[in-house]
Amino acid sequence: MPAGFSVTTIQDTPANAVVDGITMRLLKEGTAEDPSVVMELTFAPGAAFGEDRHARPEILVVTEGVLSDGHADHPKGSVIVGSPGSVHFPRSADGCKVLVVHPAGV
Questions:
Q1: What is the C-alpha to C-alpha distance for residues 97 and 72, in angstroms, rounded to an integer?
Q2: Are the C-beta atoms of residues 96 and 69 closer than 8 Å to each other?
Q3: Residue 80 neighbours by CB under 8 Å, 6+ apart
Q4: Rg for the chain (alpha carbons), in Å?
Q5: pLDDT of 16-66, one tens digit each?
Q6: Residues near 56 by Cβ (< 8 Å), separated by ≥ 6?
């Protein structure tokens, strides 16, 4: 691995329950030097997060299934960017996986 790089695999990262039907794999924790956080969220069919209000930017990449945000449905391949102050209601009728990046931390 070149200097300055690190590698984490989703398969080797333990899943932790966030809310009923949603698990999270923390792929990169924020640090004082680099506050960015990267995680994968897995939504079981019918799972809902509830209101999700953001003080900092958030980037979502739907990697499997369809993520709904309370306003629209976003299929696999969608990139959703939430700015500070944004609010959404993430859920998935049939289940989905989402790569989540918090560039400025959480």
A1: 16
A2: no
A3: 59, 60, 61, 62, 67, 69, 74
A4: 14
A5: 999 999 999 999 999 999 999 999 999 999 999 989 899 999 999 999 999
A6: 84, 102, 103, 104, 105, 106
